[in-house]
Design goal:
Blueprint (H helix, E strand, L loop, with lengths): L1 E3 L4 H8 L4 H9 L3 E5 L2 E5 L3 H19 L6 H12 L6 H6 L1 E4 L5 E3 L3 H12 L2 E5 L6 H14 L5 E6 L15 H20 L1 H10 L2 E5 L11 E5 L7 H8 L7 E6 L13 H9 L5 E5 L9 H18 L1
Parallel strand pairs: 6-10, 6-11, 7-8, 7-9, 9-10
Antiparallel strand pairs: 1-3, 2-3, 4-5
Helix pairs in contact: 1-3, 2-4, 6-7, 7-8, 8-9, 10-11
Amino acid sequence: MDIPVTGDSLTQARLLGANDENFRAIEARYPVTLTLNNGVVRVSGPDSEPVEIAAKLIRELALAAEKGHEIHTDDIRAAMDALAEGHELNLNALYSEIICTTARGKPIRAKTPGQRAYIKAIRENFILFATGPAGTGKTYLAVCEAVSMLKAGKVNRVVLVRPAVEAGESLGYLPGDLREKVEPYVRPLYDAFYDLLSPERFMRYADKGVIEIVPLAYMRGRTLNESFIILDEAQNTTPRQMKMFLTRLGFGSKAVVTGDITQVDLPGGAPSGLRSVQEILNGIKGIGFMNLTDADVVRHEIVQKIVQAYARYEEGNRL
């Protein structure tokens, strides 16, 4: 099957990837052979079905390359996973929609249909609950949307909240001021902001209160207006804490609650507030629920395999 590729040599280079790594990634997944000659990609193989799937993917990749988008093997693996999950593939839409840019000017885009749906759900709801395994971009994309809204003047501040349960000791006994006490628990959020704003700009915002870092316990009694609030690691909240957090939302505010219900660290087998919240709040207009899956994992390829292996192991142990 032949697929014409319009555009110059740079378009073809973007399609192939460094050392033809993009084609090699497709050939590693499907029993096909890909060749590019004189602006035509030939897809060949012993079976028609994988040839048609690979050809469909090549058409989408070629369109993205013609639009000037850089294509990486991680993007291709995510696209192949989306096809395997039965999702409709529209890579051009994924590449074209920029959520925000990093401090170095790199555009941040959704990499999977699930991530694109996640961003859409954030924008359409006052409160969004997002669950899923590690590496699906739950926290990072929420921070991206928060930065985008902050830069656009849609909110006046961003509040980052995490339950402090891992250390097994009271924050009051830890050294330093509040920010220094909380920092170990919110380090992943720091990393995301450093990427998007630069460490220096982030610290200026934090000093002025434009970005707040607070432990969940310190949210009691507050009302947050015109704020973008992110509750991370929400699987480690109790039902009472979850209710307390959700009732802090004020006028002009938006909240994103993220967590992985397979990684609850609450002591003594205490119930997780993230497990029961959908049953309690389902059907309320303005509250959404999003479940990202291992098909949305966009870290190193090995992370996706780890997530899948643990899922198989845990499923086998329940039988």
